[in-house]
Amino acid sequence: MNTNNKEQITNNKGRTDVYLLPIHLQWFSDDAENEGRTEQPTEHKLRRLREEGQVPKSQELIGAVTLFLPALMLLFMAPSMLRTCEEMLRFFFSRATELDPTKDAIIVGVFFRYLVRLALPILVVAVFAALFSNIVQVGLLFTTKPITPDFTKVLPRFGQFFKHIFSIDGLFNFGKSIIKMLIIGGVAFLLIRMDINKLANLQKVTPRMGLATVASIAIRLLLICAVLLLILSIPDLLFQRWRFRERNKMSRQEMKEEMKMYEGDPQIRGRIRSRFRELLKQNIAAAVPRADVVITNPTHYAVALEYQRDTMPGPMVTAKGADEMAARIRNLARDNGVPLVENKPVAQALFRETEVGDYIPEAYYSVVATIFRKVMDINELRRKAKASEKVSA
Questions:
Q1: What does the pLDDT look like over 267-285, one tens digit per residue?
Q2: What are the φ/ψ torsions at residue 95 (nearest 5 degrees)?
């Protein structure tokens, strides 16, 4: 809803006139479009945003790394680059009266060879730094969606301009720009102040020494500022990741629609699961013989568990019952040689908290694993008993 501000102005006759100012308060609202979105984005939405090229990353980190690595490369290559510059100047000045740039194409070729020798190493390191800083933040990602022309964004939106200025992102970027200016200005001031005497006496030294003095201050300025900006980029990266999740929060309705899209309608899945449980209940005669163990109360409850390591993430409840149904399960287990283990707390808990077809809760993995080990001991004793009977026969 748009709300206009009212301004009261008293004229010369003492009458108060009310004017409506065309200023929308929502221009100053931060994330008004996210109203009602309280849930964190799901993995499906984050994956979809990534495919569209929308990922959280810090441009400050990219800029700091892209400044630091070339500056470091420049520091180590400075002597060889200075020799190359001297060689280039010597070549052109020595032939200044001999070659005609309009006729001798060799001048252009020589110029570009020197340019490549001077600029290519720095350029390669800068490209590597930019790629490396992006990959570190978002991994390998290539998409043309962010650079696809969108003509709906051509027309300026005055309201959006105010919204971006007074939003959390706008205020954060403003504060970040102030800090960067203070860092660069402060470092430059300190370095120049430290070498002010050398700079004041540059007219007394050779050109080579003067160039070395200025280059030394410049390279130190680049390296120190790059390191400080790299430190500044860490909170910026954390902020960008937090804002990305805040901007892409979802409403409960969006989460329900996404669940229907990727996992099917919950009501349909519930009916299918209910039908599956009914079929299992009706098929106790076939389910109990396949069970690995039946946990009993001992008389009131009985829960049959089956576990196939290759196909099941955990033990599954294949049959359960109380009173008469429990007695039927116990009789089927005895008739088919399925071990009966008495454990009142586990039997009662599984009967209350699970349904036929459910995997047991992770909270019971430890105690059920102990029961399965006990079952293995029982089966081993039975195997030895059968083996001894065969030997006796």
A1: 666 676 666 666 555 577 7
A2: -115, 15
